[in-house]
Amino acid sequence: MNLTTYLLAGYPGLVVITSEEARAEAEIASVCDSLNRRLHAWSSSEGFICPKERRVNPCPDPLDALQLVEDVFPPEGEKQVVLLRDFQLHLDQSDPPLIRRLKDILRVAKSGGHALILLGCRLKLPPELEHEFAQVGFNLPDANQLGLVLDGILQSADIKRLSAATREGALQGALGLTTTEAENVFALSVVETKKIDPKVIAREKARTLKRSGLVEVVEASTGLADIGGLDQLKQWLVRRAGAFSASAKAYGLPAPKGLLIVGIPGTGKSLTAKATAGAFGLPLLRLDMGRVFGGIVGQSEANLRSVIQTAEAIAPCVLWIDEIEKGFSGSKSSGSTDGGTSSRVFGSFLSWMQEKEKPVFVVATANDVSKLPPEFLRKGRFDEMFFVDLPDAQERSQIWDIVIARHGRKSTDFDCVALSRACENFTGAEIEAVFVDALHEAFAESREPTEKDILDAASRTVPLAKLMDAQIKALRQWSTGRAREAGKATERQTRGTRHVIQAN
Description:
The protein has four domains: 3-136, Rossmann fold (3-Layer(aba) Sandwich), CATH 3.40.50; 143-211, no CATH class; 240-385, Rossmann fold (3-Layer(aba) Sandwich); 393-424 and 428-462, Helicase, Ruva Protein, domain 3 (Orthogonal Bundle). Helix 6 packs across helix 8 (179-193) and helix 18 packs across helix 20 (428-444). 47% of the residues lie in helices and 13% in strands. The protein has helices at residues 3-8, 21-34, 62-71, 87-91, 96-112, 143-156, 164-174, 179-193, 198-212, 231-238, 246-251, 269-280, 289-292, 299-314, 324-328, 334-337, 341-355, 393-406, 416-422, 428-444, 451-459, 464-467, 469-479; strands at residues 13-17, 38-43, 47-50, 55-57, 80-85, 115-120, 134-136, 215-218, 258-263, 284-287, 317-321, 360-366, 384-388, 484-485. The chain contains 23 helices and 14 strands.
């Protein structure tokens, strides 16, 4: 938290947004001590408090509290800092006298070098105050801070020894949690297993993050071997798998920014995101961009900040954004449709993509790239953009091998070359759907599936290539010269390029 800089610069109004009230207050108190400034605090439940003098003045009314604030802001002398807990909630009520009084207090604070700090878990200020306060960043705890929490749990549980590998695994698993959440997870691990178990910690973190509805931890159990075709894309990922290591940093190699994958639905773009995390050996976070946008003023921007904060706390990691065009397609017209919220969120996301320093590798997928704003596609946002087309005959044969093995059968029991020919212009998702259809037919007759079952299922399937022929041609035309082909470096045939993976 860069509170020291803001206080020394004489900012009269500051906002700290965090759900970790106790940790934030401790850091604010530490900064005030280091700058020799007296700290006061107010809340509607406890009143106005001066911790050093241990004096409490009951004052539940926020307007009365501002009068007390003005009383401790002398025109000259010792500089004061006043912390107001959950004060934003009172500003929600659109109280003109309260807003006016607060602006007057800020003027007094500015003239005397004092500061007023609003502390809460969300940022929502009326328009009259939006430019009166500066937001101070407050990051989630790092590994060192979580280590103090872990030491406290170990001491209370009377666990004497913890191996270096277990300790590192526990702390890495807890990154992205608040200190309170981490303490609860560590304690749960001790209760369940009588020890610190990184697997329990990772499991509970996934549940905790999923509750927010913004990001969730996805188990990256898929590898590049689970992808049929996409030779160039897989080679690109393999050559960057070590770019997050300490040796790469010492070499002076910047961490890769991300990857944009565009292509036909069902060709395995989502599978590639999972395989990327597996190939890099990094945790995978999935972001639902649609959930970022909230109905309350300022909520969308706060949600995006929360996502970025979580991803950077867990870094190095892979952040997967599926069908990103659905989240940002309305950014151009948002000024007339949502008051500019989409445009502001889009701009904040672009700025973060361009300037982020933490090793967060973004994998974004898109079906309809025409809906993406052009500034999103320029170099510097992503390291590379790949186009995924329908698979050719050889790639379809590879997909058949993978699909058959995935469902517990031997690919050698089937003629995958013949099946590939029968499924021309099928996507990977459609190939898997065909085999599942054949499995249902065979199961209903209490027998194993045959090639005839598969061929019959294929004949009943109308591929997406027929239903979306015009859209697919347009997408191929757009990608020519703009995106690298994810498959083999050969000329496109009449049908299009190559590649595909499995189902999304």
